[in-house]
Amino acid sequence: LLQGRPFGWAGILACFALFLPLGLLSKENAALLPLYCFLVEAILFRFRAPQLAQRRVLYAFFGLGVILPGLALILYSCINPSWFLSSYEIREFTLSERLLTEARIVLFYLSQILLPLNSELGLFHDDIALSRSLTQPLSTLFAILALGAVLLSALVTWRRWPLYAFGVLFFFAAHLLESTIIGLELVHEHRNYLASFGILLALAYGLNRALERIQSPFIRNALLALPIFFLAVTTLMRAQMWGNENVHAYSEVQHHPASPRANYQMGRLYATAAHQAEVVLKPQYLAHAVTYFEASAQLSESYTDGLFGLLMLEGIEGLPMTEPMRTALHQRLASGPFNHNNYNYLGSVFRCVAAGVCRFEPEEIHALIASCEQNPLFRGRFKEQTLAQYERYLQGLAP
Predict the structure, then answer these.
(1) Alpha-helical runs (H) found in 161-216
(2) Which DSSP state fits 18?
(3) Measured distance CA(399)–CA(395) in Å, rounded
C-alpha cells in the first residue's frame, strides 16, 4: 500500500479470507491471526497510506475485522459465560485459580525463552502449585507486577522502540487464547513456541542496538557467540535425553519429582520391563513400578493414571493392589473430575481382558463401572463406548 502497488489490498484480504480459515482448520489458536495483523499495522506501519481515503479504509477494516469482533466476544462471554465455564468440569481448579496461576506460568514461559535450562524444561509441568489468592503463594503477586511492568514498558516505548514493543505485545497476544479464561490444562511448553518469536525479536533488536555501540569486533563476535554456544549445548543435551526413552523418563522425574505424570511414566517403564524381564529381576522391577505408581496417585487428589497402573499390575502380573489404593481409585472415578484418561484406561482394561492378558475377578469390573456411574460427569459418547465394552465383557461371562 505504501508503495502504491495494486496487490497490497489483495495480500491483506488473503490473510483474513484465505489463510485465517486454513489456519483454523489446522489449529484453533490461528484465531489470533487478525490480532497479530493488527499489531503489525498499529505498531510498525501505524495505519499509514498514500491517500487519506485508504487510511480510513484501513481503520475501518481493522475496526470491523479485529476490534469489533473482540468486543463482541467479551460481551458474549459476560452474557453467556457457560461456553468457557463448562470446560472446568473436568479440572481441579476454578476460573479465578487458573487466572492467578497463569500469571506465574506466563512469567515461567518468559523465563524459558530468556534462560532455557534443562532442569526447568520438561514434557510435564503438572507439578506447578495452584495460586489460591494473590498472596498464596506470594510469588503470584510478584508475577502479576512483573508482567504488568513488562507490558507497560511496551506501551510506553512503542513509538521510540517499535520492534521491542511489537515483540512484547506479540508474546502476550500469543498467550491470550490458551493462558486466560478457557479451562485448558495449566501449562504446556508448546504454547510458548509461537509466542517466543516476539521475545526473540525484541532481544535481537536490543542486542543489535547494543552491538552498534561496541567498537571492538572481537567483543561483538564474542557476545554473539556466547548465546549461540549456550543454546547449542542445551539443545544437544535435551536431544540426548529425548533420544532414549528410559533416560528421558528418568530425567523428567528427577527434574520434576512432584509431577504425577512423570512418576506414572517412570512406573510404566518399570512395569513394561518387569513383564519382559527374567525371573530374577522381575520382583525388583515390579517394586519400582509400584513405588512410582503410588507416588503418582499420592501427588494429585484426582489423577488416576497411577491407580490404573497398579490395577493393571494386578491383572497382568497378579500383584495385589492395596486396599487404600483400590479405594482411592473407586472414589476418584465416582466423584472426581472425569477426564479422557479415565475412559482410555477403562478401555485398556476391557481390551486387556478380551486379549486374555489380564485376569480380573468379575466383581472388580462390576465395581469399576458402578463407581463410574455414580459420577455425573460420566456421560456422552465416551460413556456409551465404555458401557458397550462392558456389555461385551458381560456377554463373554455368560455360559
Answers:
(1) 162-174, 193-211
(2) I
(3) 9
Give the pTM. Answer: 0.89
Question: Tens digits of per-residue pLDDT, 162-200?
Answer: 999 999 999 999 999 999 999 999 999 999 999 999 999
Distance CA 399, CA 354 (A): 16
- In order of 49, 152, 348, the CA distances from 172 in angstroms are 28, 12, 40
398 pLDDT above the threshold of 70:
no
The backbone torsions φ and ψ at residue 277, rounded to the nearest 5 degrees and listed phi first, read -80, 165
318: alpha, beta or left, given left = phi > 0 and alpha = psi -120 to 50? left
Do 339 and 300 touch, CB atoms closer than 8 A? no
Buried b (16+ CB within 10 A) or exposed e, 120-156: ebbbbbbbeebbeeeeebeebbebbebbeebeeebee
Q: d(Cα 39, Cα 167) in Å, to the nearest integer?
A: 10
Helices and strands (DSSP H and E) totals, the chain? 19, 0
Residues whose CB is less than 8 angstroms from the CB of residue 258 and which lie 6 or more positions away in sequence, other chains included: 127, 299
- With CA atoms as reference, report the closest residue to 207 among 219, 191, 189: 219
The answer to whether the peptide bond before residue 376 is cis (omega within 30 degrees of 0) is: no
Dihedral angle sign, alpha carbons of residues 270, 125, 337, 341: negative
